[in-house]
Amino acid sequence: MFIVACKAVFVKGAQRMKQVKINRLSDETSAQLQLLTIKDMMSLLCISRPKVYELMQNEGLPFMRMGRSLRFYAASVQRWLIEHEQVRG
Using one digit for the tens of pLDDT, what is the confidence trace for 20-30? Predict the structure, then answer.
């Protein structure tokens, strides 16, 4: 298990995170299947609920529906963050 903190560096320092425990499973397949909720995403990215929905709609934040619920694959979110990393130079 590892903890990502708001002030900690995430993937070369571009994204800031709030403290959220994410289970790191030894099996890569199992890790890719880990699902996050809207509340998890709010905490993970330090953003509001409307901002999560905005990122889904306008920026292509990957999600899936499970009935009326929305879920996010942790691995997909991590890839999306890396792809959308902005480096100031």
Answer: 444 444 455 55
At 48-71, the pLDDT tens digits run 999 999 999 999 999 999 999 999
Please name the helix (run of DSSP H) or strand (run of DSSP E) that holds residue 74, with its range, or none.
Answer: helix 74-83
pTM recorded for the entire structure:
0.63
Q: Alpha carbon 11 to chain centroid distance?
A: 12
Amino acid identity, position 37: T
DSSP string, 9-72: EETTTTEE---EEE---SSHHHHHT-EE-HHHHHHHHT--HHHHHHHHHHS----EEETTEEEE
